[in-house]
């Protein structure tokens, strides 16, 4: 799809080639007509999807910091951008000025702003009428010519200045921004200049952005109509011809240019589409502070050579090249002082190591590799070498392999010699990954400069001689070292890494290439490769596959790499499973670690060898399982068939074994359960950088990743950056570790200095409420969810955001893609969905067998896709006991299940209707036609009887039972729980729940909430039971409040006989605080509670569930049956899966309620 910029160049070139007469500027009417075409329809989506949200996010902190706002807009057009901000921001604007050179626009703008109706006024709190100057905004003295301009003599200062639609005609652009900066208020903290620009990158000659964002997916839709094109083309070109006849002729030519470059889509053949990427750049008074940094830190000499085309297109504010650690500290201090971000260059492969108008720190001078002979207790027991490698951040993989190989050791790094520290810190997949794990798994220590304090820190094991002077050990170093192993580019500027090493191997490489006759053979070959070859290999072997197009047909290539630490003696390789399927290999070589890099198929042979060509590439990587399955294989083949360039390919790197041996939560690299890393790579000749060919290649990669994402187990974070097209991939980059990483990011980089790395979610300050709406088919789950969403949203005093999502939509999309079913009808046509239900259910069950974590993947995808809402309602759940099964995946969110019930007759009536419930992931019906609860081995959080018509009953249910879960008192209670890191052991994040009772009003608030949130009736409760010591504090206060007896459960021997007792394992915290694993007995007095009485067990926490299991067993011994027991705890720690343990022990049908949930201990 051609961009508006390329269209403009083509239109101007056509005018220059075909006409010799003079041009003239557009009249106000012509400009107005063209602008209206631009912003109509899909063009307005750029404003709704990018400009207005970015502006709101940018200005919210500024507006919050002051009472009155004065604003200046430059080129706003007929309406003010500020008029589209949220009302709370618009009402802060008390003074408004604009420079709008188009007279028609200026008039319309003033009329719009001066609307007399308060409900229609975009800026309702202006203290004076708006000032709209119908002249351009120009430099004060016109570059020294002495000519006065419209801004001359204007001494008014502004809090915010906006260049609204583009900096069209303003040259040089940086001078106009500098002029705007001079017009900002200086007190209390200065104002802000924001630029929205759609004509390619902003080259601003050394000005440094406070913040920048891009919108590469903007699209303009223009009607294929002569009259419309005759308005649009001159607007894009920027002129018309003076001669009327020539102008008429050139318009005909311009229409042809538009038709030639515009893209048509099958569904909208009458529309021409053009790409309209937008950028936003925000500047403060610190924008001109670069000389302060360059006076202290050396600059890169000459042009910086980078491997990635993506970064080469960016023009940074500057590239500094520190040569000592103190220079890196100065960079950080400068960034913190001026409130700007930094990008970091390691190996130069990252597409975001350079970013427009941002300072990049080139670590290339830190290029030393040191081999350190370690003491025995310094080396991880998993390593079979007594050496450590200290590699500085400017080293490349090839440098380390050469140096270590000479010493007889190696480090499992990436597969290319030119990659650097950014890759190792974010994973590092290489040919030794199956044997020794990822590169990040080999990290045992690091030296870095904090981007919070600019201190030099060291974490883990760093040999003393490699610790810079003044380096200090961080208190919570275990957290930081954990984060460095998989997400390390986000938390500080790394100076060096310490790796454990392994014996240097020799490699045997073998290659096969098989031409494929079509899709069916491709699927069969991929299945054979997956099932009969890859899965049978020992961990010292890896098999990579390449799917590519060459010589007019599809090919599947395979490279098998086998590593040996013993001497390789045989002249011909031993047979492999591949030989029996594909025959003897095309070639084999025995190589060392350095030569191995050149044996990669895409370097040595594919497409004639990519390694020798002048090409550029763009890639993204997803983690897949079962690549031979039809739905995966077909999409892989379809991806190659849709390639925009002959050089595009898919590279499948084998994983498993040592990669999967590491638990997902053990390091920040949380995506561990995969068979192949699928690298989707677009390649084009380097001389086509910046052209339509390159843009099409990039878009192809994103199209393929979007198609495969639902089938993947995660995305590789090393490639990802602030490009908004990476956002969906970033949500799957860290598996279950995203929220912990978000908290660490907030703690270790609060100023977001490292803003141009793989994006992490923002830490949410308040707990999210997730409601799982379950029930039988046609019970009305989706309908109820919609009603409950409206209740949350309309609860105005809480200012809540809420959304309902069907979790089954993902499997429907996969099913439609495989079978050709109509996706739209599957989603919205009940009768059509019912026809496909048996096949859809079978498809889901088959996928679940092949992908055991499929339900968890779908659940997390839905949650991550709704990070911006306070309350998320999910329908279409198939899981039994979903709260117990899924709560550990979202340990910072409150998870509830509301089961919607309806009689068989009601459901039958609804099944015959076309409206109502449309979810497709219904809980399985069972033979019992009565209450669903009687057929379950667990207890839903709440049950709603949906047999009535209308929405009043559903609203009352929501107000009575659901709204209390967003009660502000719960947040007050959560704020009373003090966090104590590294207690009672290092790396433990302890929450002092019992400490609530020590806060003023804490005990009263807690017991009040326990009483209020109990879903049973207190009138039926005969006793409150508790186990020492935490339970005593809250249970005794609650028993007093509800006026029921208190039943004490104590260690054996502390209560007078007669008693009943059971064995109780150590509680979670006791096991952490003590090495004593001895079990104890707990007891209660016999007959203190009548048999069959209703009892509420109260405790301070639910973590592993062992204590509560023992309490329930004790009550059972005393004649209190499980169905008569309810559990209430103050705080729950879902990561320990206590609910699941209780269910496994036979207590799943007990109602468990918790006021708060926390991650950690």
Automatic annotation (TrEMBL):
Please note every region of biased composition (Basic and acidic residues): 914-925
Protein's UniProt keywords contain Signal: no
Task: Give the keywords, sorted.
Answer: FAD, Flavoprotein, Oxidoreductase
Give yes or no: UniProt keyword Flavoprotein: yes
Where are the residues of the annotated region Disordered? 911-930
List, for all copies, the residue spans of the domain called FAD-binding PCMH-type: 312-504
List the Pfam families hit by this protein, alphabetically: FAD_binding_4 (PF01565), P-mevalo_kinase (PF04275), Pribosyltran (PF00156)
Where would one find the signal peptide in this protein? none
Protein family according to the UniProt entry:
Belongs to the oxygen-dependent FAD-linked oxidoreductase family.
Under what name is this protein listed? FAD-binding PCMH-type domain-containing protein
Q: Which organism is it from?
A: Stereocaulon virgatum
């Amino acid at each position: 799809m051609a961009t508006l910029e390329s269209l403009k160049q083509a239109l101007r070139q056509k005018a220059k080639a075909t006409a010799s007469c003079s041009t003239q500027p557009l009249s106000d009417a012509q400009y107005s007509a063209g602008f209206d075409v631009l912003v109509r329809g899909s063009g307005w989506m750029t404003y709704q999807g990018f400009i207005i949200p970015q502006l709101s996010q940018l200005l919210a902190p500024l507006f919050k910091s002051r009472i009155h706002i004065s604003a200046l807009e430059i080129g706003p057009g007929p309406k003010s951008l500020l008029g589209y901000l949220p009302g709370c921001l618009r009402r802060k604007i008390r003074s408004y000025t604009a420079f709008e050179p188009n007279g028609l626009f200026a008039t319309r703008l003033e009329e719009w702003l001066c609307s007399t109706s308060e409900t229609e006024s975009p800026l309702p709190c202006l203290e004076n009428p708006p000032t709209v100057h119908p002249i351009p905004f120009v430099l004060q003295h016109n570059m020294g010519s002495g000519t006065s301009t419209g801004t001359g003599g204007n001494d008014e200062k502004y809090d915010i200045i906006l260049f609204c639609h583009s900096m069209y005609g303003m040259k040089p652009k940086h001078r106009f921004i500098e002029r705007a900066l001079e017009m900002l208020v200086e007190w209390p903290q200065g104002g802000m200049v924001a630029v929205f620009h759609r004509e390619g990158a902003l080259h601003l000659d050394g000005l440094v952005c406070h913040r920048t964002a891009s919108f590469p997916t903007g699209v303009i839709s223009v009607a294929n109509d002569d009259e419309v094109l005759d308005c649009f083309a001159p607007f894009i070109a920027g002129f018309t011809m003076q001669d009327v006849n020539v102008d008429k002729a050139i318009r005909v030519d311009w229409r042809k240019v538009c038709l030639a470059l515009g893209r048509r889509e099958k569904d909208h053949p009458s529309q021409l589409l053009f790409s309209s990427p937008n950028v936003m750049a925000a500047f403060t008074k610190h924008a001109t502070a670069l000389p302060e940094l360059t006076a202290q830190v050396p600059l890169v000499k000459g042009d910086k050579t980078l491997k990635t085309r993506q970064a080469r297109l960016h023009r940074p504010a500057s590239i500094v090249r520190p040569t000592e650690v103190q220079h890196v500290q100065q960079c950080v201090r400068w960034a913190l002082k001026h409130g700007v971000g930094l990008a970091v260059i390691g190996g130069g492969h990252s597409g975001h190591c350079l970013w427009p108008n941002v300072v990049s720190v080139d670590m290339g001078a830190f290029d030393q590799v040191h081999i350190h002979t370690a003491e025995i207790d310094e080396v991880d027991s998993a390593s079979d070498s007594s050496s450590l490698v200290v590699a500085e951040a400017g080293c490349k993989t090839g440098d380390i392999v050469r140096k270590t190989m000479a010493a007889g050791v190696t480090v499992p790094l990436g597969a290319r010699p030119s990659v650097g520290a950014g890759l190792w810190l974010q994973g590092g997949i290489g040919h030794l990954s199956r044997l020794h794990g990822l590169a990040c798994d080999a990290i045992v220590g690091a030296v870095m400069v904090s981007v919070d304090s600019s201190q030099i820190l060291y974490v883990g094991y760093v040999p003393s001689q490699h610790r810079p002077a003044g380096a200090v050990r961080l208190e919570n170093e275990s957290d930081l070292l954990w984060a460095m192993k998989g997400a390390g580019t986000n938390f500080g500027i790394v100076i060096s890494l310490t790796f454990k090493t392994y014996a240097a191997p020799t490699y045997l490489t073998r290659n096969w290439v098989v031409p494929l006759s079509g899709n069916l053979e491709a699927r069969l070959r991929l299945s054979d490769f997956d099932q009969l070859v890859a899965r049978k290999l020992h961990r010292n072997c890896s098999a990579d596959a390449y799917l590519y197009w060459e010589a007019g047909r599809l090919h599947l290539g395979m490279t098998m790499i086998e590593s040996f630490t013993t001497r390789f003696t045989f002249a011909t390789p031993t047979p492999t499973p591949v030989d029996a399927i594909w025959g003897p290999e095309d070639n084999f070589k025995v190589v060392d670690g350095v030569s191995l890099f050149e044996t990669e198929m895409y370097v040595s042979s594919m497409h004639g060898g990519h390694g020798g060509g002048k090409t550029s590439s763009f890639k993204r990587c997803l983690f897949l399982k079962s690549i031979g399955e039809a739905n995966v294989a077909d999409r892989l083949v379809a991806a190659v068939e849709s390639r925009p360039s002959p050089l595009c390919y898919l590279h499948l790197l084998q994983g498993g074994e040592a990669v999967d041996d590491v638990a997902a939560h053990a390091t920040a690299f949380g995506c561990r359960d995969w068979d192949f890393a699928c690298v989707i790579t677009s390649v084009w000749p380097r001389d086509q950088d910046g052209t339509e060919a390159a843009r099409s290649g990039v878009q192809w990669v994103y199209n393929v990743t979007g198609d495969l994402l639902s089938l993947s187990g995660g995305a590789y974070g090393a490639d990802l950056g602030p490009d908004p097209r990476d956002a969906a991939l970033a949500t799957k980059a860290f598996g279950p570790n995203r929220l912990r990483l978000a908290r660490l990011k907030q703690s270790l980089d609060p100023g977001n200095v490292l803003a141009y790395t793989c994006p992490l979610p923002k830490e949410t300050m308040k707990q999210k409420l997730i409601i799982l709406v379950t029930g039988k088919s046609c019970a009305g789950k989706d309908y109820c969810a919609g009603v409950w969403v409206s209740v949350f949203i309309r609860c105005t005093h809480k200012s809540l955001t809420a959304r309902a999502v069907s979790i089954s939509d993902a499997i429907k999309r996969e099913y439609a893609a495989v079978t050709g079913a109509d996706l739209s009808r599957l989603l919205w046509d009940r009768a059509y969905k019912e026809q496909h239900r048996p096949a859809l259910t079978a498809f889901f069950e088959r996928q679940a067998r092949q992908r055991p974590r499929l339900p968890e993947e779908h659940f997390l995808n839905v949650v991550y896709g709704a990070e911006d809402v306070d309350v998320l309602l999910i329908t279409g759940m198939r899981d039994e006991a979903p709260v117990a099964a899924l709560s550990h995946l979202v340990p910072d969110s409150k998870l509830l299940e509301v089961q919607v019930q309806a009689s068989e007759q009601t459901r039958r009536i609804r099944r015959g209707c076309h409206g109502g419930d449309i979810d497709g992931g219904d809980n399985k019906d069972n033979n019992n036609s009565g209450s669903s609860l009687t057929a379950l081995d667990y207890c839903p959080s709440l049950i709603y009887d949906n047999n009535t018509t209308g929405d009043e009953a559903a609203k009352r249910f929501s107000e009575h039972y659901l709204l209390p879960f967003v009660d502000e008192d719960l947040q007050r209670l959560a704020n009373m729980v003090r966090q104590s890191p590294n207690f009672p052991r290092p790396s433990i994040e302890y929450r002092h729940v019992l400490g609530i009772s020590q806060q003023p009003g804490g005990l009263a608030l807690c017991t009040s909430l326990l009483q209020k949130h109990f879903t049973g009736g207190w009138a039926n409760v005969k006793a409150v039971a508790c186990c020492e010591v935490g339970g005593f504090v809250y249970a005794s206060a609650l028993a007093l409040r509800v006026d029921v007896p208190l039943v004490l459960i104590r260690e054996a021997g502390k209560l007078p006989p007669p008693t009943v007792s059971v064995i109780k394992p150590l509680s979670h915290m006791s096991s952490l605080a003590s090495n004593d694993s001895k079990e104890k007995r707990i007891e209660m007095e016999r007959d203190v509670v009548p048999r069959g009485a209703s009892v509420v067990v109260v405790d301070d926490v639910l973590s592993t569930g062992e204590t509560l299991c023992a309490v329930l067993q004790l009550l059972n011994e005393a004649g209190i049956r499980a169905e008569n027991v309810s559990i209430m705890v103050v705080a729950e720690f879902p990561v320990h899966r206590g609910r699941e343990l209780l269910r496994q022990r036979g207590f799943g049908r007990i109602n468990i309620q918790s006021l708060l949930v926390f991650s950690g201990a």
